[in-house]
Structure formats: structure tokens, C-alpha cells
Amino acid sequence: MTIPEVLFRGVGKRFASGTDAVLTGIDLSIERGEFVSIIGPSGCGKSTLLKLVAGLSSCSEGEIRVNGMTPANAREIVSFVFQDATLLPWRTVQKNVALALELEGRTRAEIAKTTEGLLDLVGLSHVAGHYPRHLSGGMKMRVSIARALATKPRILLMDEPFAALDEMTRDRMNEELLRLREEQNWTVLFVTHSVAEAVFLSSRVIVLAPHPGRVAQDIVVNLPYPRTAATRESKTFDEIVNRTSKLLRETHRA
To answer: CA within 20 to 30 Å of 88's CA: 7, 26, 47, 209, which one?
Structure first.
């Protein structure tokens, strides 16, 4: 029997500063290679869910298994991309991507080869020597993604990484992300407030209900990959977006 890539069993979370639960009764099984987006109203625990998988926070109840391991033991196969690109302004693009490799003690030759390949992968070889202040928002996020991929993760956690971008740039970044995933076959958990973005990217969309956060809907997105600008123009895409938006509104009202 195949082990789920990420498994939640009765997961709940309370913070020490309060008695109200942030998350409760989360039961989810995510298989290898799935792209799962998590949507829901503000405060429903979307980001907290990612932090639990990353081992940045611990469950108050229940358990999480990442490729059969506890999150703390699975950190080497998980990378996190935050909403802010969080690049170090005093390091060049190449040096920002190299950071995790340096911390792992890789040789200069290994670091140079890996960073060169990653920058080529995300289309930024031409700005390898530039500093973050010289980059557009979309370019900074591509550097952040390249840095996350430096350790060759199996699982990519993404917390609203494109929220600050304009719509056209965001659409291009969505297509770029799916291209990279096709090449490297990670499992992705992606938090977003955009229903259209969730549907475009995902094989499944999880809708969380608030107060406390819990799974209200688990929606399978039956759209073929690869997905392109033509996908967004299709009738099926519109239907899934409209249905998901309706379920989200109903969940929020309930």
C-alpha cells in the first residue's frame, strides 16, 4: 500500500495565548505529485496548516505524517515559499539561491553547478549577479522559488506567493510554476485567497470553514494538464470556478 505524501489525522491546533481552537478535526490524505490548494476566509487557519506540515509549529491534537515521518524528521524533503520573497538584500541573486547549499556545507563547485541550473530553470541566468533591489516583483518570487528548490524537495509549501503581483504577472507565474512542477514532480500545498488561481493550478481544492478551521469541501479539479491561458478561457474552467466560489460563500455564511 502506498504511503500518502502528507497525512492529517484528527489534527487540531490551539495557541498557548488563547483557548479557542484555530484548527480542529483536520483529516486529509494527499498523494505523491498532487497539487492541492487551500482556500477559505481570513483567520481559518490556512497558513497554520502549512506551518504544521513544515514542522514550524506543532499539533495540539492528532498527528501529521510527511512521507511516513513526523514533520520534524521530514524537513529535508520539504521547502517553504512565503508570500514575501524574503531575499537578503546584500546578496546577489546567485548568492540568495545558494544560501541553503552553503548552510549544508556543499563545495563551491557543487553550489555553482546547482545554482546555475536553477537560475536557468526559472529563466534568471541573465540577472545572476544582480541584487534584489534591481528585480521586479515577479523576478524576486522566481528567485525565492529557485532557492526553495535548491535542496531538491519532494514537497513544496507555498503561502500566497503571488498575492502581491498584478494579475498579468500572477497568471504568468502560475503557468511558470506548473511548468517547473511538470519537470520536477513535487507535491504542492498552496494557500491562496483567489479561487481562480486555486482552480487553475490544482488537482484538488480544499475549502476550510472558519472558527475553528476545518475541512468543509474537498473539490476535485477535472482539468487536464498542462494548463495554459486557453484553460482560463474554457467553459469547464468557468464552471469549476463558479461552483467553488459558491461553496466558499456558503461555507463562510454557515
So the answer is: 47
**Each residue of 18-28: pLDDT tens digit?**
667 899 999 99
Neighbours of 99 (CB within 10 A): 16
Per the domain annotation, does 69 fall within a domain?
yes
Three cell numbers, residue 201: 493550478
Domains held by the chain: number: 1
Residue 130 lies in a domain: yes
Q: Give how far Cα 164 sits from Cα of 99, 141, 167, Å.
A: 24, 10, 9
The H-assigned helical ranges of 122-166 are 137-149
146-197 per-position pLDDT tens digit: 999 998 899 999 999 999 889 998 998 999 999 999 988 999 999 999 999 9
**Domain membership of residue 29 as a residue range:** 6-253
The single residue listed with the C-alpha cell 481544492 is: 205
Q: Is 133 part of any domain?
A: yes
Phi, psi of 70 (to 5 degrees): -70, 155
In whole angstroms, how far apart are CA 187 and each of 15, 33, 37, 72?
A: 28, 4, 11, 18
- pTM value is 0.93
| 45 contacts 54 by C-beta, under 8 angstroms | no
Let me know if residue 1 belongs to a domain: no
- Rounded CA-CA distance 81/50 in Å is 10
CA nearest 37: which of 207, 198, 244, 157? 198
Cell (9 digits) for 202? 490544482
pLDDT in tens, 77-113: 999 998 888 899 999 999 999 998 998 888 999 999 9
Cis? peptide before 212, omega within 30° of 0: yes
Q: Please give the backbone phi and psi of residue 108, each rounded to the nearest 5 degrees, phi first.
A: -60, -40
Q: Rounded to the nearest 5 degrees, what angle is found at the Cα of 49, between the Cα atoms of 68 and 99?
A: 80
